[in-house]
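Private note to self, pasted from the team thread so I don't lose it. Backbone tokens:
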């Protein structure tokens, strides 16, 4: 058992080799179990799962992804190139963002998830749910500030964002045609479109342009990309998946809060890696 844990869970972290079929399935099972428990707790605490609640969680997603990119920048040596800048010096000298179990996947998302859950339940008990989003925004902006001195590759980032918005608009038209037009549905499509678009641009365009060899870390994503000579197919699949998923959620579930909770999970799984990829490309990490 110890050898299996070492091979499938520990080594991929320290070898920077990404995910494999075993840890992907285990992480997915754990995530689904936690999601189910959280849903039950939210309902027990009578926390309304509405569009406002979903939107209030987005800053925490941005916070986690941005913090992860700071570690990427430190680990790849990019941050070191900017030593002398007070903000960069703080990041490097603090040691907080050194590559460790808590600063990379899945540890960083467990940590951010715990902070988010504490904020949601804590402010709910204080009867101040309106403070959830502001806290998330402050946390996110604090990380963006630490990353700001090394952000430089704006043209590639704009390319990824433009492609993501195009995919989102296509999904929006389909949702509208199916009478499933909602803010959260469009956010879900944007999150997955951003993931697909940023993956395509960073692997097929940005990497070759700057002489860096980026690769897709997730098992399923690698398999989809292998279907063609370009990761553009991955972008198309992500947009199609998110659109179809939102239609299915809307049509198959009659519970409004359940629909929004499932949509929130879909949003997290798309937006978190999408934002990380975009910011990592923007920093050249």
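Design output:
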């Amino acid at each position: 058992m110890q050898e299996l844990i070492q091979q499938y869970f520990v080594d991929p972290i320290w070898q920077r080799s990404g995910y494999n079929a075993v840890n992907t399935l285990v992480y997915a099972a754990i995530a689904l179990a936690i999601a189910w428990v959280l849903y039950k707790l939210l309902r027990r605490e009578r926390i309304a799962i509405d569009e406002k609640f979903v939107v209030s969680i987005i800053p925490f997603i941005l916070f986690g992804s941005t913090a992860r990119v700071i570690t990427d920048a430190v680990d790849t040596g990019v941050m070191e190139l900017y030593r002398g800048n007070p903000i960069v010096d703080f990041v490097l000298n603090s040691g907080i963002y050194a590559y460790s179990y808590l600063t990379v996947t899945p540890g960083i998302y467990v940590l951010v998830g715990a902070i988010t859950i504490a904020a949601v339940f804590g402010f709910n008990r204080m009867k101040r749910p309106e403070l959830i989003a502001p806290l998330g925004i402050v946390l996110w902006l604090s990380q963006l500030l630490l990353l700001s001195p090394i952000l430089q590759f704006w043209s590639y980032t704009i390319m990824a964002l433009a492609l993501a918005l195009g995919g989102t608009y296509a999904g929006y038209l389909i949702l509208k045609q199916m009478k499933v037009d909602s803010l959260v549905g469009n956010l879900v499509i944007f999150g997955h479109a951003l993931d697909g678009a940023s993956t395509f641009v960073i692997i097929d365009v940005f990497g070759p342009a700057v002489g860096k060899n980026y690769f897709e870390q997730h098992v399923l994503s690698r398999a989809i990309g292998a279907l063609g000579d370009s990761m553009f197919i991955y972008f198309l699949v992500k947009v199609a998946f998110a659109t179809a998923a939102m239609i299915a959620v809307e049509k198959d579930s009659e519970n409004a809060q359940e629909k929004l909770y499932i949509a929130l999970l879909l949003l997290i799984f798309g937006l978190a890696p999408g934002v990380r990829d975009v910011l990592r490309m923007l920093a050249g990490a």
